[in-house]
Amino acid sequence: MRSSYRSAVRAPIQTVINVADAVLPGHRPVSGQLVRRSLWGALPSTPAARPDTINRLAITVDLDYQKDTDVLVRLVDLMGRCGAPLSVAAVGALVEADPDPYAYALAAGHEIVNHSMTHPDNPILNLDEEFWNLTKERIREEIGQAQRVYEERLGIRPVGFRTPHFKDTHKMLSVLSEFDEIRYLSSVLATTSPLGAEPYFPSAADRTWGQQLSPVESGDRVELLQLPLTACPSHRWSPFCSWHGIRDGGGQGSGMHSLAEWEALWARMLTDRTDDGLVVVYFDPHDLLRDADTEAAFERMVRLAMSSGWELHTMADIAEAYRGLATSPERSGVSS
Prior knowledge:
There is one protein chain. The chain has 336 residues and is of the alpha/beta class. The protein has a single domain, classed as TIM Barrel (Alpha-Beta Barrel), CATH 3.20.20.370. The strands form 3 sheets. Strands 1, 2, 3, 8 and 9 form a 5-stranded parallel sheet that branches. Strands 5-6-7 form a 3-stranded parallel sheet, with helices on one face. Helix 10 runs parallel beside helix 12.
C-alpha cells in the first residue's frame, strides 16, 4: 500500500511541477513559492522507519478560540472515561487568559503543543497577519512568547509545534531549531507529501521543485520530525478533522459529511491505514461537544479505535518512538 500511496501522490504533484516549469521557465516563481510554503524542500529518499508493528493513533485538538477552551475540561473527562491521551495544540494568548483548563488537561496526563502565541490570521486574536508571511523575527516571537507563557502558567515547555492554519513556511524550520526542547512538528497533510503518511525529517535547504525529490543527506536535514496529518478517506486534500467533516457554517470545504457519514469514515480510515501503522487526526473541541449526539459519536469513535487494535498516544510519544528512543515519561513537555 505504501508504494502505491506514494505513486498516487507523486503523479499529480509532478504534473504541477511540469506545468510550472513549462509556463515559467528559469525563475520558477510559482513552484518556488509552493516549496517555501511547504516543508518539502528536498525530501529524504527513506523516511523515518516504522519502529515496530504497533498501530499508533494520535488524537489532537486545536484550541483556536475561547469557546474551545471553555469545553476543554469536558473533553478531558471524556477522554478519561476512555483511558485515552490527547495532544492539545494551545494558543499562548488563550492559555495566558485562562490557564486553568489547560492545567487540568496537563494534570490528567495529556500533552500541550505549541500553537503560536496569537495564531496569526485568527479573526479575534490576530487578523492582520498570516504565519507563512511572517519574518523570522516574528516567527521567533510567536513561538518563543508562547513557550514562555506555557512555562509561566503551566510549568512546562512543549516539545511539539503546530503551525496556525497549517500555513507552513520553510523559514520557520531554522527558528524552531533554536528551541532545543522542540523535537517535532505536525502540520503537513499526508496526501500532499510524496512520502505519504510516513514521518520524515525536513530538509534544511530551501530548494526549488526541480530539486525537491532528490535524497537528503543526514547533515542536510532539520532534526525536527514531521508527523503528517491523515487525510479524510473521501476528500484527500483535507485532513480528517471536525471542521471539514461536521462543522456547521464554517465556509467552503466545511461540513462535508453528516455525523453518521463522518463516523463511518473514521472506521474506514482506521482500516485503510493499518499497513502504515500511524494515524494523526485533529479536531476542534467546540465541534466535538456541540451537542449530545456529536459527543456520543466521538466517544464511540475513540472506543472503536481502541478495540480495533490501535494504541492511542500523544504526538510526543509517537515522535520519540519513531526516533528510536525510549518513550519519554514526561508526555506534556519539558518540565521547567
